[in-house]
Structures are given as structure tokens and as C-alpha cells.
Amino acid sequence: MGTEENKIYTAVLIAVAVLGIILVYFIITILRQQKSNFALYNSKVQAEIITLEKERSRVARDLHDDLSPVLLAVKYNINSFELEDPEDRRVLAKTNETLDTMINRVREIANDLMPEALLRKGLVIALEESTDTIYAKTGLQVRLKHDHIPALSLDKSVNIYRIIQEVIHNTVKHAAAATLLIELKVAGPMLLLRTEDDGRGFDNSAGSRDFTGLGLRSLLSRADILKGTMYLDSKAGMGTRYTFEIPL
Questions:
Q1: For residue 170, what are the contacts with CB-CB under 8 A and spacing of at least 6?
Q2: DSSP letter at 229?
């Protein structure tokens, strides 16, 4: 190979090396930007979840402390009247039924926003009370199994409770399942939350529309808030299994 050819060959190698360096830098920049965008999005979602929980708590407190007593006072006042006309007594009885329905509905809404049992009795009892009523409302049989769970902070309990609510919602809405198993287990410094349904499952590959449309962003964000990890296993016709590993 002549001197001129050596120069050309060297120049080509240098050009390829420079292009390679530029390409690698470009790829690294894109990956960093994607990571930054994902972190920013995740922070935004987590901030929205925290704000939502604060608002839920405030509205539940207002309903429980302000609206319920007013409705009870109205019921007490109208029942203090002595009515002799049968038609008036019939109207009063109907009004009492309406007020009772309103009072019960306000309590249900307040409890959905922030379960009273979660505040007073802790996570496990709140889950037991909520899962007992699911079959009557949805036809989904929920089985809850748990170890002795140590006392958890309210924030941690609320986020775990919301994760289970979201899984139940997804199961009822999408899975066509008959049963859902929910298991809470202590493993060393970790709390393991496992759920498994016998529904139709779905394709959880990255490009699947179902995978991105089942409220998984909320589950992932709550797992991040808890500094935990979420695993998902689902196949068409094989049900869906979630596992959350949450530091105690």
C-alpha cells in the first residue's frame, strides 16, 4: 500500500472514529433525556397523587364533620313536629326515608374518599371491611390472606390501600374474573403484597395497548412513593398477578 493510500486509509479511519464518537454521544444524550423526561413525569404523577390524597382527606373530613351533622339535625328537627293529619305523617315518613338515604350516601362517599377504619383501626381491618362488600356490589369474590402486619404510617397505609383498590378496579373492569386473591406477607424488612385473579389476562408487552391502559401508571407511581418495586405477570387466558415489594 502506497503512502497516498495510507493517508486515505488513515483519514477514513479517523472519520469513522469521529462519526462513531458523535453517534455514541448522540445516543447517550437521547437516553439521558428520556431518563430525565421519565423522572420528571414520574415526579409530576407522584405530586398529583399526593395532592389528590390531601384533597380526598379534606373532602371526606368536610362531609363527615359538616354535612352529616347538618342532615342529622334537619331530621331531628322535622321529627319534633306533632302531626295529626295522616297525609302529613306520610310525607314526614317519606322525608325521613330520603334523609336516611342521603345520610348513608354521604357516609359511603366519605368512606370511599378516606375509609374511617383505615384512620382508626389500620390497614388490615380497613381491607377486611372493604373486601367484604365487593362481592355484593360487583360479583367478584375477593379472598384476603395476611400475616401479622406491624403498625404502618398513615401515608404508607393509604398508598397500599389505594394500590389494592386500583387492582380490584382493574380486575372488575377488565379481567372478567370470578375470584381475586390478595395476600400480605412480611418477609424480613419487606412487606410483600401479592394479588392474583383467574381472569382472562392480557398482553403485557411494552407495545401492548392493554398494558398501558389499565391504570398501571398509578400503580407504578404509588410503588415509587413507597420506595418499593412492582412486578406484573399476565398472559392472555392465564389471569394477572401483581407483586409489590415495599420496605417496612
A1: 214, 215, 240
A2: E
For residue 34, pLDDT over 50 is answered with yes
C-alpha span between 116 and 35 (Å, rounded) = 39
DSSP string, 118-167: HHHT-HHHHHHHHHHTHHHHHS-EEEEEE--PPP--HHHHHHHHHHHHHH
Give 3-state DSSP helix, strand, coil % of the chain, rounded to 5.
65, 15, 20
**Residue 208 reports pLDDT greater than 60:** no
> CA neighbours within 13 Å on the CB side: how many for 119?
10
Mean pLDDT of the chain: 80
Cell of 7: 493517508
- Distance, in Å, from the CA atom of 171 to the CA atom of 179, rounded to the nearest integer, reads 9
Q: CB-based burial of residue 65 (10 Å sphere; 0-12 exposed, 13-18 middle, 19+ buried)?
A: exposed
pLDDT at 183 over 90: yes
